[in-house]
């Protein structure tokens, strides 16, 4: 077992009737890229901000590097790079001045690192923040979060505003930081990002953690997408059996998701006269939609 860099124990933040988070518990191990996923408004930012003691928990606790998040907040923050989902700046400052100002909080010379990161992220240091697009402001936030080479990087919806090419560059940069030993908590509502980047994932819905899983297990234990092109029409209820969901009958054939004993479904299919058959891995988007529906049934 690795050392836990983050430990959340029944972390709760109530806002009266408005949604907060309830009993959120998970651990992030040292050197891990950990995904934190859920739809917008599920409680991801609240969890992160409570963990960073930017807001105080109603109950429960959190530790980072084994230290209590509230008691040791100033000390802990020196080793953390945090990119909030919304970035606000002193508009009339130049990018380089803001980054130098940020670097002054850390007891080390970050000028070489600032130059390196801004080159990687294609960020013009001489511009005024006021003149930057949303995407370029996001780049400032990324450089700001990484300039002191933190041991823990916490990213809240980091790619919004970045074009696809820059997202790719950013992912490469994060993988490099991770290789150098940084632990990363990556919060997103975009599943393909989490799928690309993370080892494990915590799924949050309506302020509650509904699943903690390895990405590999999530894919294995889940569904296969079947697409069939039959030679003749199939009765609408032909695939009404355990493990089959999301049945769609189209002009060209039948699509469905299947989870369960593969032999049962192949026997059923083998009785049909087919012109074609595809079996694919569904993406996590489809897998999660299923999770969310299941949770709704349980609630």
Concise structural overview:
The protein is an alpha/beta fold.
How many helices? The count is 10
Portion in helices: 25-40%
User: Helix-strand pattern, N to C?
Assistant: EEEHEEHEHHHEHEHEEHEEEHEH
Approximately how much beta-strand content do the residues carry?
25-35%
Q: Please identify the structural class as seen in this structure.
A: alpha/beta
- At CATH level 2, the architecture of the largest domain is 3-Layer(aba) Sandwich
| CATH hierarchy, class of the largest domain | Alpha Beta
Largest sheet: 6 strands, mixed
The CATH superfamily label of the largest domain reads: P-loop containing nucleotide triphosphate hydrolases
Number of strands: 14
Count of individual domains: 2
Radius of gyration over alpha carbons?
23 Å
Strand order within the widest beta sheet: 6-7-8-3-9-10
End-to-end gap: 34 Å
Explained architecture:
By secondary structure, the chain is α/β, with parallel strands linked by helices. The chain folds into 2 domains: 4-219, P-loop containing nucleotide triphosphate hydrolases (Rossmann fold, 3-Layer(aba) Sandwich); 223-281, Alpha-Beta Plaits (2-Layer Sandwich). It is 33% helix and 30% strand. The protein contains 10 helices and 14 strands. It has helices spanning 44-51, 73-77, 95-103, 111-120, 134-146, 164-179, 191-197, 215-220, 262-270, 284-298; strands spanning 4-15, 18-29, 33-37, 59-64, 67-68, 80-83, 152-156, 183-188, 200-205, 208-214, 224-230, 244-249, 254-258, 274-280. The strands form 3 sheets. Strands 6-7-8-3-9-10 form a 6-stranded mixed β-sheet, with helices on both faces. A 4-stranded antiparallel β-sheet has the order 2-1-4-5, with helices on one face. The protein has a 4-stranded antiparallel β-sheet with strand order 12-13-11-14, covered by helices on one side. 31% of the residues are buried.
């Amino acid at each position: 077992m690795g050392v836990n860099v983050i430990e959340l124990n029944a972390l709760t933040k109530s806002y009266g009737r408005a949604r907060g988070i309830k009993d959120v518990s998970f651990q992030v191990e040292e050197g891990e890229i950990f995904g934190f996923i859920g739809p917008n408004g599920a409680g991801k930012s609240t969890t992160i901000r409570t963990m960073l003691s930017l807001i105080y928990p109603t109950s429960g606790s959190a530790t980072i590097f084994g230290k209590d998040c509230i008691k040791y907040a100033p000390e802990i923050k020196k080793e953390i790079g945090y990119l909030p989902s919304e970035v606000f700046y002193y508009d009339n400052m130049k990018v380089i001045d803001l980054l130098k100002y940020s670097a002054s909080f850390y007891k080390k010379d970050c000028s070489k690192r600032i130059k390196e990161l801004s080159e990687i992220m294609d960020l013009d240091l001489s511009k005024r923040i006021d003149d930057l697009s949303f995407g370029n402001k996001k780049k400032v936030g990324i450089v700001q979060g990484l300039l002191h080479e933190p041991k823990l990087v916490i990213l809240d919806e980091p790619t919004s505003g970045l074009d696809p090419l820059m997202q790719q560059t950013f992912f490469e940069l994060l993988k490099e930081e991770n290789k150098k030993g940084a632990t990363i908590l990556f919060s997103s509502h975009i599943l393909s990002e989490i799928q690309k980047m993370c080892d494990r994932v915590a799924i949050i819905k309506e302020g509650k953690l509904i699943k903690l899983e390895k990405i590999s297990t999530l894919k294995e234990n889940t569904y296969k997408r079947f697409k069939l092109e039959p030679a003749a029409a199939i009765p609408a209820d032909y695939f009404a059996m355990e493990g089959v969901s999301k049945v769609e009958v189209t002009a060209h054939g039948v699509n469905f998701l299947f989870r369960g004993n593969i032999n049962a479904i192949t026997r059923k299919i083998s009785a049909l006269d087919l012109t074609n058959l595809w079996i694919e891995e569904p993406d996590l988007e489809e897998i999660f939609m299923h999770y969310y529906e299941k949770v709704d049934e349980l609630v």
